[in-house]
Amino acid sequence: MAEKKSAARVVVVGLGRFGGSLARELTAHGAEVLGIDTRRDTVQRYADDLTHSAVADTTDETALRQLGVPDFRRAVVAIGSDMEASILTTALLADFAIPHIWAKATSRQHGRILERVGAHHVVLPEHDMGERVAHLVTGRMLDYIEFEDDYAMVKTLAPAQAVGVPLGHSRLRTHHGVTVVAVKRPGQDFTYATAETVVEHGDVLIVAGRTHQVETFADLT
Question: Which one is the CATH code of 9-123: 3.40.190.10, 3.40.50.720, 3.40.50.300, 3.30.450.20?
Answer without folding.
Answer: 3.40.50.720
